[in-house]
Amino acid sequence: MWRGPVAYTKVRGMTQETDTTHFGFRTVKAAEKASLVRGVFDSVAPRYDLMNDLMSGGIHRVWKDAFVDWLDPRPGRAYLDLAGGTGDIAFRILERSRRKVAEGVAPAHVTVCDINKEMLSVGRDRAIDRGIVSGLSWTCGDAEAVPLPDRSVDAYTIAFGLRNVTHIDAALAEARRVLKPGGRFLCLEFSKVVVPVLDQLYDLYSFKMLPIMGRYVARDEEAYRYLAESIRKFPPQEELLARMEAAGLGQVRYRNLSGGIAAMHSGRRL
Questions:
Q1: Band of residue 218 on the pLDDT scale cut at 50, 70, 90
Q2: What phi and psi, each to the nearest 5 degrees, are found at residue 138?
Q3: 179-190 and 249-257: which strand pairing?
Q4: What confidence tens digit (pLDDT) does each residue in 85-97 have?
Q5: Most CB atoms within 10 A, among 14, 80, 192, 201?
Q6: Which keywords are on file for this protein (predicted)?
Q7: d(CA 67, CA 184)
Q8: Which residues line the annotated binding site?
Q9: What are phi and psi for residue 13, nearest 5 degrees?
């Protein structure tokens, strides 16, 4: 199994292997990152959707609509939404697919998988509030070890979750594993700003304003400092395309949103 970046240090004349990764701008042991990320989202889960609206001025809703538009959900298909705990993408997939339901065709089904139980709890409550009682299932699981069989879903979506994974390449390989032949991988994530001046303004906003908003709204300044740092550590657009191809996905491409503040990446299991 792919093990992520490996650093080597000398201990008393011997070489010792240390499996490390990043948690924001900090270097941590790879084995620790999942629990650190879990702690962040345990803390912010109750106010996660409110913070998304405040941080983006509501633009995240436009991005998610564009994301699901590009997916073009259809009835009768099985979807997996990874890191989708609060249900934002799953609800959109079900809504769009139900508009196209024809007689004799089963509606779509979405499995929401998230490593964080608190986020899943928020999503279930939101589904109940919306009266969504069918077409959804919820499971707690890791993007690097998806609890689904090989070739079991028609599409795999992940929105604002891939950058929190310890080993991105392992998660991409898992995405390919669970996709049926011809199945679609679609990722929405913060990316590299490609518009001059906007990149500087975005940095200022991310590192000055987000932690302050996190302190007063989500009551966790460090969580939103981590989120800002994690965006800068995520691979830029072309690098992510190359890593998707290395994981065995084909027909890879991407679309920038809002000057590259976010980007959508698409690929297929051929």
A1: low
A2: -125, 130
A3: unpaired
A4: 999 999 999 999 9
A5: 80
A6: Menaquinone biosynthesis, Methyltransferase, S-adenosyl-L-methionine, Transferase, Ubiquinone biosynthesis
A7: 13
A8: 86, 114, 142-143
A9: 85, -5
Return mean pLDDT, the chain: 87
pTM attached to this predicted model: 0.84
Cα separation, 74 vs 63, in Å, equals 20
Read off the tokens for 142: 């890791």
For residue 88, give the nearest of 229, 188, 232, 211 by alpha carbon: 188
Tell me if 158 sits within 8 A of 234, measured CB to CB.
no
- For the stretch 25-32, contacts whose Cβ atoms lie closer than 8 Å and that sit 24 or more positions apart, written own/partner, are 25/229, 25/232, 25/233, 30/3, 30/4, 30/166, 30/167
- Dump strand ranges (E) for 135-241: 136-140, 153-159, 179-190
Positions at the binding site for S-adenosyl-L-methionine: 86, 114, 142-143
Shortest CA distance to 68 belongs to which of 93, 87, 85, 86?
Answer: 93
- Residues counted in the chain: 270
Residue type, 38: R
**Going by DSSP bridges, is the β-strand pair 26-29/14-23 parallel, antiparallel, or unpaired?**
antiparallel
Tokens of 199: 């990149």
Helix (H) or strand (E) holding 53: helix 48-56
Amino acid letter for position 1? M
Look up residue 17 and give its two tokens. Answer: 């292997």
pLDDT tens per residue, range 222-250: 878 888 888 889 999 999 999 999 999 99
- The H or E element containing residue 65 is helix 59-71
